[in-house]
Amino acid sequence: SDTEKGGYPFYMLKEIDEQPAVMRRLVQTYFDENGQPQLDKDLLAKLNEADRLYILAAGTSYHAGLVAQPIFEKLAQIPTEVHLASEFGYNTPMLSEKPFFLFLSQSGETADSRQVLVKVNEWGYPSLTITNSQGSTLSREADYTLLLNAGPEIAVASTKAYTSQIALQAILAQALGQKRGVAAAESLPLKGQLGTIANTMQSIVDEKQEMDDLAKKHLATTRNAFYIGRGYDYAVSLEAALKLKEISYVQAEGFAGAELKHGTISLIEDGVPVLAIITDERVASHTRGNIQEVRARGAQVITIAMESVAEADDDIVFPDVEPLLSPLVSVVSTQLIAYYTSLNRGYDVDKPRNLAKAVTVE
Ligand code: G6P
Q1: Catalytic residue ranges
Q2: Of ligand 1's atoms, which has the minimum distance to the CA of residue 112?
Q3: Are strands 224-229 and 273-278 parallel, antiparallel or unpaired?
Q4: Of 218, 219, 236, 216, residue with least CA distance to 227
Q5: Cβ partners under 8 Å of residue 138, min gap 6
Q6: Which ligand 1 atom is nearest residue 161's CA?
Q7: Is the ipTM of this complex over 0.85?
Q8: Within 10 Å of residue 275's Cβ, how many Cβ atoms?
Q9: Three-class secondary structure of residue 147 per DSSP
Q10: Which residue out of 60, 67, 141, 354 has the highest number of ligand 1 atoms within 8 Å of its CB and is therefore the one to mutate?
Q11: What percent of the chain has pLDDT over 70?
Q12: pTM for the whole thing?
């Protein structure tokens, strides 16, 4: 109903707007008064015994796992692999001696993920579910649960669950890293960073008209679109493309920028929108090079950049945050671009054709 939507035309827009509050709630829930992450001690002890972390998920949650992979490796120095649950079940990789399994699932009901958890329990390996749904199947069947507390997510296209999954994984990585004495975890002011990120997210959702304008200008009638990014921006480009595909039916693909020259550039023709995400200073100049290459072939380029690597004519620029956590911010603009593209094309944003919020069949 309209009251539940709080005056919003669609749940998706409401849920995008809720992200700053969701970040703040996570900080309140999972940090103590000294600003240190506070998590179940048994969970941390079990994780500390592990020699490798296996993240299992589907869809948008899989993309949240891809963003978290370098966060776990840098902050907790635990080797981390991210797998599509649907592939892992049948194509199980060689496991390490002491694996720990992390299931990421907004709904906690995804059958593809559950079939892996059933096997993990048969094997007797420890597991954690990070979910937005207390008492869900994946939560009940895993050894441990961490709740996102993001409030119900109604729109089929996931937004606040994705960002809260990333933030909660970062909190977990820092807690584990501190336990292991990893300098990067001890020196990162994560609580303060997440507060800054909440403010930066707020400034982006306050400027949503900009994203509406960009969607109208570049995505109103196109049949396809490309997202490019390197380093931390690559995983975001995959999620940005998925969001656009799901609700606007624009055929979209996310690419690692360097791969353009290995194939994708053949698809670039006059007028094709290419959205570039640029936050990672290690690779920013290379992404700029890719932008020139696609522009030279007629692409319409939209840039989303972090201030320290931004240029004068970038379309969306946001203030600097810890680079590892920049996906939390850069993705918000892409969520809004997908939202407005769907809205402007006249679709039911919250209920895209052929898709379900939770898929309980394999
Ligand atoms: C469905 C939804 C997606 C979601 C995926 C995984 O396909 O349409 O939005 O990302 O399931 O869902 P989960 O609840 O496991 O995160």
Answers
A1: 357
A2: 15
A3: parallel
A4: 236
A5: 103, 105, 108, 109, 110, 113, 114, 117, 129, 131
A6: 16
A7: yes
A8: 29
A9: strand
A10: 60
A11: 99
A12: 0.97
